Every structure is written in C-alpha cells, then in structure tokens.
Amino acid sequence: MKAAAFEYVCSENLDHALGVLDEIGAEAKLIAGGQSLVPMMSMRFARPSILVDINRLEELKQITPGDGFLRLGACVRQRVIEFDSSLDKTIPLVKKALQWVGHSQTRNRGTIGGSLVFADPSAELPLASLLLGASMHLQSAAEGSRVVGAADFFLGPMFTALTETECLVAIDLPVWSGPRIGSAFSEVSMRKGDFAMASAACQLQTAEDGVISLITIGVGGVNGSPTAFPEIAKEIIGKRLTPQIAQEIAEQAAKQCDPGSDTHVSARFRRSLAATLLARVMLEAVEDSINKR
Amino acid sequence: MSKVAIQMTVNGTLYEKEVEPRMTLVDFIRDELGLTGTHVGCEHGVCGACSILLNDEPIRSCCIFAVQADGMKVTTVEGLAPSRGQLSKIQDAFCEKHALQCGFCTPGMLIACHDLIQRQPHPSQDEVREAISGNLCRCTGYQQIVDAVMHATACEDTTHD
Amino acid sequence: MTNANVKFKYIGKHRRAVEHRRFVVGEGNFAADIHLRGMLHVAIVASPYAHARIKSIDAIAALNIPGVHAVVTGKDLFTDTDPILPGVDAPQVKRYPMAVDIARYAGEWVVAVVADTRALAEDAAEFIDIDYEVLDHIVDPELAALTNSPLVHEAHGSNIIFNRKFTWGEVDQHFSECDHEISYRARWSRNSTVPIETFAVACSWNDAAQMMDVWASIQMPKFPDQLAKALRLDGNAVRVHFDVDVGGSYGVKRGLKHSILVAYLARKLNRPVRFVEDRLENMRGGDMQGPDRIFDVSMGFNSDGIIRSMRMRALDDIGAYSGRAPLQLGKPVGAIIGPYRIQSVEYEAIAVMTNKTPQEAVRGFGQAPTNYAIETGVDQIARFLNIDRIELRNKNLIGKDEFPYLIPSGTSYDSGDYETVLKKALNAAPYSELMIERDRLRNSGMLAGIGVSTCLEPSGGNSSFEPLFNPKNTTTTWMDSCLIRIDLSGSITALMGTSSAGQAHETLVSTVVGEVLDRQPDDIRVLHADSLNALPSNSPVGSRMAIMLGGAAAGAAKKLRNKLLKIASHNLGVEADSLEYAEGNFTSKFDPTKKITWAELVEIAHRKFHELPSDLEPGLQEKFVWEVPTGGLLPTEDGRVQMYPCHSFEAHVILASIDPDTGKVTIHQYICGHDCGVMISPDVVHGMTYGGIAHGLGAALLEKYSFSDEGQLLSGTFMDYLLPSSHEVPPITIVDHCTPSPLTEFGQKGSGEAGYLGSPAAIASAVNDALAPRGISINTLPMTPDAIWTALHEQVNELRSI
Q1: Do B73 and B95 belong together in one domain?
Q2: What's the predicted TM-score (pTM) here?
Q3: I want to staple C197 with a disulfide (CB 3.0 to 4.6 A). Which of A275, B20, B104, C430 is the partner?
Q4: Chain C contact set for B49 (CB, 8 A)
C-alpha cells in the first residue's frame, strides 16, 4: 500500500500554501495531521499530484480568546486541546468530544481543522462544533477570507463547503459563560476509539430552579453529516428535563434522522442508538450543570 | 518523481538522505536507515506496530511521510535502551513479565509504554490499557503487557530510565 | 500449581524467555527484514470479481516502465509449476498461486508485477489491463451445496469437496431411548487469527549451486518439500531458513502460494525477490481466513440431565480453493464429545466451495467452532430441564478415575480431572460473588449473565485426520526431532527443525535440556536449523511442541547424559549405577573422592580417544526423532481413529453484562481454569492462554469477514475487521491445575491453542444467560451490538425443542 507519487511542498507561510492551491487547483492537497489523508493515499483513494504541508505554519496553531468565543487555529493539534486544562471551562463540549477521538497516537498528529475538513459523518469534532454554532474561517488566494457557519459548512459525508483552493485557517468556538453550564458527549462504537455507530452531544445551561435556559443538542453518525436540532431544542427552553421528557425529545429527534446501514450496524439500530444516546447526554448535561453551580 | 533531501536525527544519530516524497516515515526508518525494529502491520493507521517517538511524542509512522519529518528527532525501539547491553526499565519489565511472544507488535508497544511512563510515572491499570489501546496485539491478550508496566512502575528506583 | 510427585529444577519455573532478548531491542529477524543484494519486489493485481473468466491480460504498458522487470500471470505458473492439491481426494480442484483462466473469488491474485521497489511495482500494476467476462457466482454455502448452483470448479462437478457421515455407536437407539431431544443451529461466522505481521517471503536462486534459498514467515508442516514439489525441484534444491522470526501465525501462515510465486520469480529472473503482502492483499487474497460453519445439532438426553447421544452436521464454507480447510472438519473427530460421557455420535462433515477467499488452518484446527457448537447444546439442555448449568456439566463430565477414556470416535483421552478444574475456576471467581454481582447488575437495569464452558484442548498433533478424510492418503508419521551437541568448550547447543511464531521454543528446548542434563538453561543455545540440515519436524501445529519437541529434546538429552555416564563409569572404573550425577559432574555414591567433572568428560569425548569406551563415537552429539505417542495407526472402516495423544482441558467462568439499549457487552470478570499437565514454561503457557482468550473474544463479539451478495469482502481493512484492543480484552485470571499425561516424559501436555478453544463458547454462554430472562438466545457469532439489540427487539427465539 504505497502512495502514488507526488511532489511535496512544505509551506513556510499561509500565503504560500494558498498560492499553490490557487495555481494547481484540485490536484493539490493540503496535509495537516495526515491521520486520515495518509492512509487514503496509501490505499490510493487519494492521489494528489502536489502535497502542501501546512504543519509548520505557526500562524495556524494559535489559540486566541475573543469576545464570547475562542479562536482555534486549524492546525492546533488535538492533543494540545486535550492537555490544555484551561479549555475545560471555555469549550467543555469539545474537550469531552475529544475523549472519543481515535487514540493518543493519532491525537498527537491530528488537528482540529483536519477532522472538521475530513467531515466523516460519525466524527466527534464536527458534531461538537456544529452544536456550538462554530464559525469556520476559510481563506483562498483569489477570494480572500470568508466565514461560514458550521451549519452551512458540513454538507454531506466527507463533503464540506471548503472549495478546492481554500484552506480552513481557524475555527471560532462560541464560549458559554455563566453558572450552571453542563455538557455531555457520548457515543457507541464497536471498539473504543472506532468511528461511532452513533453519537450524541448536548450543552445546556440550567436556571437556578432547574429549568433549561439554553440548550443545543445533536447526533452524529446517523445522517450524512452531524445533525443539530435547533427547533426541538427551542421547545425545551423553560422546561425541566426529566428522563421521560428527555426520552420523548430524543425519539422525536431520531425520527428526523435517515441513517444508513453498513457491515456492523443496521439503519434501525442506528436510529435507536441515536435516541438512546441523545436522551442520556441530555440528562448527563443537566447533572453536569448542577455540579457547576 | 524527483527525490527530496532530508535530515533526521534518529536515536541520536543525524542522517542525511534523499527520498521520494511518498516514502512513509516507517519505510524510511526500515529501508533507508536499516532500522528494522519498527514494523509495518497495516499501513492504514490502525495497528500501531509502526509506533515511534517523533519529537518525543508517540505517533504512527505509517501515517506520515518521511519528508514531513525533515529536521525532526525520532526515537525507535532501537533507541530505548540506555546503553549497549542494558535494557530500559520497561524493556526489562517486558522480559520479566513475558509481555511479548512473537515480538512483532512489541517495538510499537514499548514506545507506547515508554511514553506513558514518561508522562505518568505511576499509572493505574486502566491508564495502561488506555495508553496501549492504539497498539494491537494478537499474541498476548494484553494481560502480561499491563503486568509489565505495573511492574516497571512499582519500583522506586528510576536509575534505568 | 500441583506438580504430581516430581520435583523439577527448571521445568515449571518462572524463566525469562530467551527470545525476548532480541525482540525488546528491535533485533528480531522477520521475513520483511531480509535484505538481499539486488532484491526485487512484488505487487499483485487481484480480481475485482467473485467469478470471472480472464479473457486477456495486457501488460505492455507496465513492462515499459523503467524499473519493472517482469509481469507474470497464472498461465506462466500453470506451465512451469505443479498445482497445489487439496488434502482431500479432489484432484480436479487445483490451485496455483494465481488464477489460471478463471478467477474464483474477488481478491484472487491474477497478475504479479516485479519491480525495483514495491511502490514502483504498485505503480506498474495500475497499467495492467485485464479483460474479464463476468460469470455467475455463488456465495451462500447452503445454496452452493445444492446441485443447481453455479460451480466454483466445473471440472469437479459439484461445489461439495468433501462429504462424509460417520456413525459411532448406537445413535438411533440411544435417541429413541432418551426422554428428550433438542435440536438447534449454531453459526460460527468466518473469522481468523489475523497476525499483525502479514505473510512475507524472500527467495534467492543460486544458478551455480542450483539451489533456492527461502526466508519466509512460515508455520507449516512439509513446507520445504511441498514448495520443491510445486517448483519441480528436488527436495535438496530448496533450503528454507527456519531462523526467520514469524510475527504471529496461530495456524494461518501456510503461505505456499506466496512462496511458490516468489521462488518461481527468483529463478526466472535470476535475482532475489521479496514479497511482503500488504494488509489489503492479505485480508482479501492471502487465503488465510478461518472456519465458516453452520452446525445443525441434536442431542438426546434424559430428565436427569445425562446426555447420551449427539447428531452433528457441520457444513463448512471453505471458499474457492482447498488448502487444509476440509481437514479442519476432521480434527474435531478426536474430541467430538468434548469432555462429556456422550455414548454415541453421528457426525456429518461437509466442506463446500463458494466464490470467496479460501480458508486456511486456524488455531485449534476446527476445535473451537466445534466446542462452541457442543457447549451451546449443553447450556440449552440445562435451560430446558431447569437444571443449573454447572450441575449439568458435573453430571456429564468424564470423571478423573475413568482415564484413559475411549470416546465413540476412537480416540482415547489420556488423563484429566475436569471437575476439579471447573471447581477451581468457580472458586477463584468466586462463583457466589459473581451471582451477587450479576443480580446487582440486573437490578440496575442491565442484562447480566454468567457464562460457563468446559472444553477439551486436544494436543500433540497427529496426521490421522488426513487418512480419515482421504483414505488414499495412508500416512501415519507425525514426528519431531532434536539434535544436541556439547562442544569442545563444554557449551551446549540444541538444534530444532522448524520456525517459531512466538511460542518460545528456544526457551522450551533449553529448559528441557537443562533439566535433563542439570545444566543452566540460559547457557544452552537453541538454533533453528534450515530445511537441508534439519531433522524431521512437523512444525508447531496442533499444540504439539511441548510434547513433541520437548519430548525429542528430552530424548536427545537423555542419550547424551547416558553417554556421559558411560564415559564416567569407564574412567572412574566403577559401575554406572554407583554414580550420582549433579550439574554435569559424576561422583561415586560410595567414595566421594571418585569424581569426574563436566570439563573432564568433554575433554575425553573430544580429545582423548584413548580414554573413551570402545563402543562410543568421538564427540558429544545425539539426536532424537520421535513419533507422536499413540500415533502410527490408520483409521478403521467406520472412521474411528486415535486423533491426538494428549488432552488438555479448560473451564471458563465469565460475568458479563449487556446494555439493553446499545447491545454492548461488557465482561466484568474472566476466569479460566486450565490443565495442560506439567507446564514446562508456565509464563509461556499463560501467555498463550491469555492470547487465545483474546482471539476467542474477537470471534465471539467483534470479528467477521463479511461478504456482499456480489462476493466482495466488506471487511478487508482493520477499520472494518475489528481486532480486540486492550479495552476490549478484560483482565483475565488463570487458575492452573496439573493432571500429568502418562504419555510424555515430564507429564506435559500441549497448550498452544489454550483459551481460544473454550472462550467463544463461554462468552456465548454469558450472553445467553443474560438474555435468558427475556426468553431469547443468540446462536450466531459474532454477537455484535446490532445482533443483540435486534434479538432483544424482535424477541426471536432461536431455540427449537422437540
């Protein structure tokens, strides 16, 4: 399983990388962590003629707090996020999602941007960023910068709004502030670290009396891309999340899903799993919010 | 396709080679440098037999091209022993606890365990299992590997490391 | 650990394996590490279709690429090599390393490209143009067995390559006398041992010497001569280097087709050639998949729980070609009743071909699926009668005073104490606490169950399934050997004639030789001979090496010790039986001043012919070639035969829970009681038992080679074929017991297949115990979350009672 031949370019700055993309187009591919791309190249499913290495772009590795959000450079390693305890308070959902991502060795190289751009339907970081309403900063040589909201970024399995000359440079993750913010992420996979058969995530804020004041919920692995349920979430505001209500909401959401089948999981089972997990994470998030008084 | 000149410090020795960009780091280590201790098991980033330390972090060397590691520091299983004729604490523990059989996953497994002990001098059994969960073994069922790490980290003496 | 009545000095003790020294420093010598000057590399073009006629192959563009040396097809091999024939009588089912005219499974090798590098060979492979005519294919084994389905091998006339029904004892009568009968189907889906190292082979042809040197990741009896035969070379024109470290095999590395191909290329091109399967080639086209069985079983039993008779029909889907696969239906004949006193058995073994990747020998050689099928029935009988499963087993287990125990199919079990092993395992849990924990889990909303299995591990190997399944093949030799030398400096070197794949044979031999000669095992060097200077061996299969290699090493060491004794007696002028031996020195029992040392004996043997007894050869070297104990007999007309000589035993006790909403199984406790007689290297035995349990867990819960209706392998990468990691394999407790074998030197039995033979049955037992309150059971492996969840939500009851 040896990759097809390619030319290699190691970019020293972003403009250079973008310039190559602009000049070459679809035949050029950016490589960051490579944990998904290199195996695909080894199996010859991906065959760029030019590989542009952006691992050394310090400008893409910054973690910068903003006003109500945290800006993560696309090339921030998953491991860096994992080990940065200051992020527990600001982006807890992302931290929890990361616990399910691959293995420590893959997280040492894998980047947040890489996972988002790869857009596997059952990947954890896309789901977390969708639920938070993240903003993706895209840049190309010809068109300059633009910002795409997560809801408009994930378009289908392995398919995003990124054009062939664009690079994802940063992700703005909204930071929820205030007391009683809880979050939970759960997935079921055949083995720990595998792609999820189904996953679910929730972040919420409870009021002093226990009713929900803010909430975002979603599932992964059950549609072509991660799915949030903003309309259903709105209905929960002002209510208390009991196990029964959580179950009803979860089933309602699951009905909206159109999962596929594969060797390991039937569509029916996947849908049921999504509902089970969604109910569980909502209750876990409530529990988590109470502990964060 | 034309070759690219790269430099890499592997187990303390600086190497300068010219390689095709498509050559993975594991193939580079094995074929260009002749360090065959690191093994190829799947070439798609799952089995962990190819694990090495890149700038002191364990990675899958089948998931990175050698050219990407230009100028970096690599440690392979051949670089774990403190000196010739001696074994590191974890290597010694593997022998004592029979933590290997065919030896094929062992180099990658040692790298993962070595890294764990560097970060977590006294891990729990669960932490050991988590640390080696990205290294597949078909011989041992993992039990004696966990035993080896617990054994290596039980002693107070740290002179071997 | 009980040790019978014998005290050993080295045997049975903790000892660091010799092999570890090289592996922990990365100095293993694996086939992919072999570098030969001018070596060329191979990549494969495989058939994309399950069944297709190869109309044309255009390699011109590939051959024009600089660095590409050859493109070879099945036609070339057909002309220049002999086919690989099945072990059963089916001469029309021929196999060549690559497809000849017809590709019979998706992934079958069609073209081999040889180039300066593997990457270049893969580049060139993309320029090969193959024109296929797609043919009808068959993937369902039950349909394949019918006469109106597409034929995998037209010339054979049927897809059934083997079919025989054995009747041992009064089966009909016993069934009619029984109070009850149950029938069930148990499905063992296709999985395999999947070593982390794929198969690799390097060959170098020497024109001047007319000899082929072979380095391969091989675990296979008769490999050198089968290779020579296929290449139409004399046996002494092929030299296989057995000192290649094999990165795990557990049965499957019978890479005969890989080796024939590479050897052929090496000779054709007069350049060394190496082929390292990549993982895709291995999974799809390496022909190393395992048993794929449908068991239809009936058991006749009484109300008191005594099981009297069994009918078992085993249909095995062997894939498109036949390697050892049909014979894997034969070995279980030697333990067909498991550890129970079942009095009569009807066994129908059917091997059917389909357009899928062929099977190869897998750890246990068919015993693990058979044990799963038997244990499934035992548990079902217990539920039917509402008798505790452990109590039911105890009623039926052969008692420790009943050995040697002759089973209906002709094998005599040498020794055992099954009840004690089971009891020890239950006590280690302890069982009472498992029940409390199980109930606590059930009360918390989980499904929870305790699994039990009591299973035989036949050990020692024997060729008897070969003549059993092919009466034309009247073979009864199944041996192993050891040669030991004490050199001029007094150092001991032992030679073994086969490769090792993690079983620590060097450690085994040096421990045994050290024990017999009372010399330090760590000072004894054990080497792997090559096939031209090796004594006969049948390689490490069928859990045989502790018995056979251990026995041969002991035999040679005893001969040497005897020779030393003769020299000592001759030189001290005393009777041999008046001498005491310790650590290589002889001392007179009656006069301690009369003593002769190891160094002196060595001197005499090597340099002082004048002091050597006249009937002795100079030097100190002895060989021992040993036929398997109880071996040498052909099967009877009705198919009764002594299969393996020694019988180890395992009792698994498991506590598991199932999350009813996700179908995920968690194993909370895993205890394995194990009796393989005297353990020569306990660390090694334990290691293989842990590993065997992990294999079994994979088979029970995770692993399956899934094929589409089009015959496409859907689980051809490690992302889809799921090997258990350290998260999936729980901590395991092994409890040892020792019932020595009367047939071996130290009382040792074999145990290389330990754990695997009983764990799938035990895990299934736990899962079904957890599901029992819901009135459902699952009799298909693997028991995936989807399978469990679906069973729970469809309330499918697979138990049919008569």
Answers
A1: no
A2: 0.97
A3: B104
A4: 196-197
